[in-house]
Amino acid sequence: MSSSTLPGMEVRELGTRQGLRLIELNIGAQHPASGHMRMIVYLDGDVIVDVDPDIGYVHRTMEKLAETREYVRVISTIERMTIIDACNVTLPYVEAVEKLLGIEPPPRAKYLRTILCEINRISSHLYGLGLGGIFLNHSTMYMWAFGDREVFLHLANMLTGARLTHTYAIMGGVRRDLPQGFRDAFEKAKRYMTRRLKEYDKIFFNNPVVRGRLENIGVLPRRDAILLGASGPNLRASGVEYDARMTKYAAYEELDFKPVVGEAGDALERIWVRLREIEYSLELIDRALKQLPEGLFFNEKYVKMAPPAVKHWIEKGRVRLPGTYIRLKTKPGEIITRAEMGHGEITYHLVSDGGIKPYRLRIVTPSARNLILFKELPKGHLLMDFPAIYGSLDYFPPEADR
Amino acid sequence: MENRSEKEIPSRKRPNLVKAHLDAITIGLKTLLTRKPMTMMYPEVSEEWPEGYRGVIIYFYDKCIGCSLCSQICPPRAIKMYKVPGDKRLRPGYDIGRCIFCGLCVEICPVDALAESKVSDKVFDKLEQMVFDPIDWTFFTKDLQKEQETRRNKVRVIIDEEVGLRYESTVTK
Lengths: 402, 173
Description:
The complex is a heterodimer.
Chain A: E1 3-6, E2 9-17, E3 20-27, E4 38-44, E5 47-54, H1 62-67, H2 71-78, H3 86-101, H4 107-135, H5 139-160, E6 169-170, E7 173-174, H6 182-205, H7 208-214, H8 222-228, H9 233-236, H10 267-291, H11 300-305, H12 312-315, E8 333-340, E9 345-352, E10 360-364, H13 366-370, H14 372-376, H15 385-393, H16 397-401
Antiparallel strand pairs in A: 1-2, 2-3, 3-4, 4-5, 6-7, 8-9, 9-10
Helix pairs in contact in A: 2-3, 3-4, 4-5, 4-10, 4-15, 5-6, 6-10, 10-15
Chain B: H1 17-34, E1 46-48, E2 57-59, H2 69-73, E3 79-83, E4 90-95, H3 104-108, E5 114-116, E6 131-132, H4 134-150, E7 154-160, E8 164-169
Parallel strand pairs in B: 1-7
Antiparallel strand pairs in B: 2-5, 3-4, 4-6, 7-8
């Protein structure tokens, strides 16, 4: 048995099968195209026989950490699962605690949450598109997508005061009101991005070289997508009309939301769904800004309890919290909430025993659900197609490992 | 959805092969020749952060009432209470190395003794220098405020329709 080492890969011969050599190829865990995970690929010549994804390199015990912290301190912890999508990943947790506390955020807070969620979704999709591009060695798409992502990080920075880890939605509402000049800045960003999407189509999506790499690769039929439990754009690209935003959390009910659905289910269709979702998210933010109701951005109960010496900040659009906010006591019970992230649907199961900390917080992240596709999709494809399939799935290892 | 021919699916509308190649080359060349780069030359120039940016936390000793709420809400336990000689109350100390700049301590403070500065790129030589006791934190606050005002070559980031992000010097000529 012979073995050899390539940059970031290790090859080992497993013996022969019907006269053909079967090779075990380790991609990762330090390989730039694998992220924080290892892919054990079994090859028959150049054809992939099986893929065994080896995960867990970035496991950070998020569920256990949540049990040791007070409700408000958990938010900035679980945010670190997916820092590129920070509002979407914390929103269902915040809504779960709100329901157990029996408080309702004011309508303006719901709209502001929706706006940040959609900004996050755009930057998350651009991140996925950029990585999808570099997996195909298309470095132009990588640079363009990451550059344009800066525009939306700047918008998020204006709204929340942080580029990535916003900790924006907290129990009772949001932490900041809409700043002055945000509407103008968004209007410009929208016009810029709409024009850029047309350029993306030209250089990436309709580029015959890219189409040759992506078309009819990694086809996920509608039935299999449902059976395997795929989620997010990967599910919708197979023609399933399901999006967690249809369950009408935050302000999506008033915004008349309709999901973007593809049909073909191959790698190209998954990229197409992401591009169209960016377009649709811009439209949703526009609608939310137009319909944005007046009023408080934080629950009245806590605003009244805020210390009198700092109340002038609330009029300036910054929240000030009462001292009791640290030890919020929920009523005992359990609750399941869900939300749509850029990568797919995230589900929280929160169990409370009536204390100041969660008794148990179970998190099912979209990347953890999409992981099974790595095993199923590449079978029968050439090794060359593997990066294309990986790039189209928009997998985020720290989120899957939690 | 059933039995639809491939051509009806929007993503399957195959563009003309020659035109698509030419389009890709044209847009690439056009960007290369006409577009200004979006890069900010960071150490030489630095960003003037927008209003309400959450940077390093600064502390005002005279306003503090020693209620310890900030140390209780701090998610990574970067703020801890210290005993100060000659002071009956416990006062907060700060570990920059642990701070995640979430700004929750500023929001829970009942008397405005804590605030967010606009500096987030502070450099230290040693790990021990990143831990401040209440007195050190007060002096550090003064240094930081001075640095915030005197830092030169600052640019303001502006969203632009044509290039995405544009940088404008804050110094008016």
